[in-house]
Design brief:
- The complex is a heterodimer of chains A (394) and B (407).
- By secondary structure, chain A is α/β, with parallel strands linked by helices.
- Chain A folds into 2 domains: 210 residues, Pyruvate-ferredoxin oxidoreductase, PFOR, domain III (Pyruvate-ferredoxin Oxidoreductase, domain 3, 3-Layer(aba) Sandwich); 113 residues, 2-Layer Sandwich (Alpha-Beta Plaits).
- Helix content of chain A is 26%, strand content 18%.
- Chain A has 10 helices and 13 strands.
- In chain A, the strands form 4 sheets. Chain A has a 7-stranded mixed sheet with strand order 2-3-1-4-5-6-7, sandwiched between helices. A two-stranded antiparallel sheet of chain A has the order 8-11.
- In chain A, a hairpin with a 5-residue loop joins strand 9 and strand 10.
- In chain A, helix 4 runs antiparallel to helix 5 and helix 4 crosses helix 6.
- Chain A is globular and about 70 Å long.
- Helix content of chain B is 39%, strand content 20%.
- Chain B is built from 14 helices and 15 strands.
- Chain B has a 7-stranded mixed sheet with strand order 3-2-4-5-7-6-12, with helices on both faces. In chain B, strands 9-11-10-13-14-15 form a 6-stranded mixed sheet, with helices on both faces.
- The longest helix of chain B has 30 residues.
- The chains are: A alpha/beta (394), B alpha/beta (407).
- The interface between A and B is medium-sized, with 30 and 34 residues.
């Protein structure tokens, strides 16, 4: 018998977290007398900011190391997972890894009766608005915590690792037992609170884990592209259309690389108050992914399919509250916000402010300390005499 | 020979390490004097692990980050010439970029050890495993072997230095390991004690060739037609002697650490009564041996030969083992463009080795796993079946089969 765990993590910010959880499972399972090993999906690029990646752990109580390796180690991805861990809940909207093809469902690998384990402060119902339905029943569990995000080469020691280990033991004790998790953490770290954190997550998971029924969940619209045979593409290596010169004004006007939009990289998206915009062009100028489309009224629309949530626009925008980063899971559409604003300026401001709330998530650069919450404020609609930035003329 | 009780003391601990970190442990235990580094995936994690061991104060070594692979390999070569035990490594096109230095290291008869994290030769950026990078050394006067597990990789750093530095050999050593499947997979690895390693691996002594102010010598002066043939003949002689030294070193390793390697040059898995075997290098051993076990359950007489040493090539030993078979299927995780039958590199050597036999097995070739594409148990079963067909004359004209190609 083989138990398979995958950890869906974000490149750079969670690179160490993913690897540590995989390695912990191997060490805990070994202590239990099982054979185990762990690897990452090699085609991933965990050195790229926020990109969805995977780490795996394989555990068997009865196979030899060689057989386990033959079944699991010689493959680049797994066919099915007993537990799929997700350490940033924004990934439930789908993941498009760097070296893979197409946006994939986050529960794509979860087997029947398997478990999707998400670190999230959203409810199961909120998450199921995004997670696609499957023809069989599976289980959904959450670890009540925000995404643990650190900087490059940095690991944020916020007990997410311990919580996830405890929750895995609850979701499938055939992988690792909670007693073995506790014993391992105590021996390795000599810190009691780590074992207690694992136990607390174990208890909470047993209480809250939920069975998702067949065909419960969201519709899924992304198709996985079929890769061509060797006879079906041009000689001279893989040649794909590049970004043509120039662009049109208006939404989706920029010429972007359509081959890989990277939208699933983001945990947050910029929400724009067009009425406050002073047309300084900095968001458009500084966006590293050409996400801002100049419009004929001098504003800049944003394309959420291409946006990776890097915060650059929000950082450079000189107007308070004009561009604010908001939790990606508050949105169910990538439609043009500028069109929304043009159609219904007052309604748009109301919508934007509702999404923004007053809590502002910040991820201080470089420090690796992860996120902090600051207070924002409500800025009333701007009464611009020219009218260009605010309401469209009737 | 060490007793079993003594052997239990040769392993210090079992720790979680990936293949790259296992190599770094080997380098630390070999007490390497000079390390030159330049990053390229998948080798990069070896240099990362070494720099961390040094930064953490666990290991004292000269660690030089070069400006390119070419400089990196030159530094390793020069360090070796002053009598330092030196270590380098690379992957894929980085390996190719430093080739000038690699070639000269062999003709200068210096014995540093390099790890090659096998990587495709870069169809835009491809970083998955393919063996063409390391195999490019095959005619250059190097020792070249493949590890098939992370544990073997650690042990072969020690075994490799011992063979390379033997005064009868003095050849540079390349230890190849499959990118991803081996370099980046975390396993529980047994780490030997320093004491045991010290017993196994004596200090490096370059003898009177050592470059030192007290020993003023000039290394590698200009040679032309007046010297080159004799130099090559000496290189060959060293490789010939290496064929004798290698079994000695493995015996010594087995005596100290337990009977880990029955045959130094290649592992024979269920080959005794086999009619058909696959031959491969590196991590494909796992699915291949599992495939063999499954076909054995159905009464098929199959086996697997894990070819560890490619240079020097174990000609006589392979003739003996493979000569008994009806069919031999070679798994080439490489491609030799324009070669006979348009196959891989390994099959050419195996077929040549078997040609002088009066009774020869049918040899068929498989190209698979290129650029890191996976080779599964099912793929290996299919290769065994094709080899069976080939052995019974059912295969037709195709001598080479591509496995896992989208067609």
């Amino acid at each position: 018998m083989i138990k398979r765990v995958e950890v869906n993590y974000r490149g750079v910010f969670q690179k160490n977290l993913g690897k540590y959880i995989g390695g912990d499972i191997v060490q805990i399972a070994s202590r239990m007398g099982k054979v185990a090993f762990s690897n990452g999906r090699y085609s991933d690029a965990p050195e790229r900011n926020g990109i969805p990646c995977k780490y795996f752990a394989f555990v068997s109580p009865d196979l030899s190391e060689e057989e386990l390796e033959a079944e699991c180690g010689a493959k680049l991805d797994i066919d099915e997972a007993d537990v799929s861990v997700v350490v940033d809940d924004a990934m439930v909207k789908g993941v498009e890894p760097w070296g893979w093809h197409g946006v994939r469902a986050i529960n794509e690998k979860v087997r029947e009766k398997g478990c999707l384990l998400v670190t999230s402060q959203h409810s199961h119902d909120q998450l199921l608005k995004f997670i696609p339905k499957r023809p069989f029943s599976w289980r959904l569990a959450t670890v009540d915590s925000p995404a643990s995000l650190a900087g490059l080469w940095v690991y944020k020691d916020d007990l997410t690792r311990e919580h996830v280990l405890g929750a895995i033991a609850a979701a499938d004790p055939g992988i690792i037992s909670i007693e073995a998790v506790e014993a391992y953490l105590l021996e390795k770290t000599k810190e009691k609170h780590r074992a207690e954190a694992a136990r607390a997550a174990y208890d909470a998971t047993l209480r809250t884990i939920r069975v998702v029924k067949p065909n419960e969940g969201a519709e899924w619209h992304h198709e996985i592209p079929r890769l061509p045979t060797w006879k079906e593409f041009e000689s001279g290596g893989v040649v794909v259309p590049a970004v043509p010169r120039g662009f049109k004004m208006g939404p989706r006007g920029q010429n972007r690389n359509e081959q890989f939009l990277r939208g699933t990289t983001k945990s947050q998206r910029p929400v724009i108050r067009f009425d406050l915009c002073i047309k300084c062009t900095l968001c458009w100028y500084d966006c590293p992914d050409e996400c801002f489309d100049p419009t004929d009224d001098g504003l800049f629309d944003v394309n959420y399919e291409a946006c990776v949530g890097c915060h650059k626009c929000a950082d450079v925008c000189p107007v308070p509250e004009c561009i604010v980063m908001v939790d990606e899971l508050k949105f169910d559409s990538d439609a043009s916000p500028w069109e929304h604003h043009k159609k219904d300026p007052e309604g748009y401001i109301k919508w934007a402010e509702e999404k923004k709330g007053l809590e502002r998530l910040h991820f201080p650069h470089v420090t690796g300390l992860g996120r902090e919450i600051r207070q924002g404020k409500y800025v009333p609609p701007k009464q611009d005499k020219s009218g260009a930035g605010a309401a469209p003329k009737a | 020979m060490a007793t079993v009780a003594e052997r239990t003391n040769v392993w210090a601990k079992e720790v979680l390490l990936n293949g790259c970190q296992a190599v770094a442990q080997g380098v630390k235990l070999a007490n390497v004097d000079v390390i030159a580094a330049y990053p390229i995936r998948p080798y990069t994690e070896v240099m990362d692990a070494l720099s961390k061991l040094i930064a953490d104060g666990e290991f004292d070594s000269e660690y030089i980050v070069a400006d390119s692979e070419h400089s990196q390999f030159e530094i390793v070569k020069h360090a070796s010439s002053v009598g330092a035990r030196a270590f380098g490594g690379s992957s894929g096109t980085g390996w190719m970029y430093g080739f000038e230095a690699l070639v000269v290291t062999a003709t200068d008869r210096l014995p540093p050890l390099f790890v090659v994290g096998n990587r495709a030769l870069d169809d835009p950026g491809a970083f998955g495993v393919e063996h063409n990078d390391a195999l490019a050394l095959r005619d250059m006067g190097w020792l070249l072997c493949w590890a098939s597990t992370a544990q073997e990789a650690l042990e072969h750093v020690l075994i490799g230095y011992r063979i390379a530095e033997d005064s009868r050999v003095l050849m540079p050593m390349a230890l190849a390991m499959d990118g991803a499947f081996l370099t980046h997979s975390q396993h529980m690895i047994k780490v030997p004690t320093q004491e045991a390693v010290n017993k196994f691996l004596p200090p490096f002594n370059l003898g009177k060739r050592v470059l030192h102010p007290d020993n003023p010598v000039s290394i590698a002066p200009q040679v032309n037609e007046d010297w080159v043939m004799e130099l090559r003949r000496q290189n060959w002689e060293a490789a010939r002697r290496a064929r004798q030294v290698i079994p000695e070193v493995y015996k010594s390793f087995n005596d100290l650490f337990g009977p880990r390697y029955a045959n130094p040059f290649f592992d024979e898995f269920m080959c005794e009564d086999a009619e058909v075997v696959l031959v491969g290098l590196g991590a494909v051993k796992m699915p291949a041996q599992t495939a063999v076990r499954r076909m054995r359950e159905q009464g098929k007489k199959v086996g697997y030969v894990n070819l560890r040493w490619f240079r020097p090539f174990p000609t006589e030993q392979l003739r003996e083992t493979l000569g008994r078979m009806k069919g031999v299927g070679v798994i080439d995780r490489n491609f030799a463009h324009g070669s006979p039958d348009n196959g891989g590199i390994v099959v050419q050597d195996i077929r040549s080795a078997l040609y002088p036999l009066t009774k020869r097995p049918v040899v068929t070739d498989f190209i698979g796993g290129l650029g890191g594409r996976d080779m599964s148990i099912q793929d290996c079963i299919r290769m065994l079946e094709i080899t069976f067909d080939a052995a019974s004359g059912k295969q037709g004209d195709e001598l080479v089969t591509w496995i896992g190609l989208r067609e």
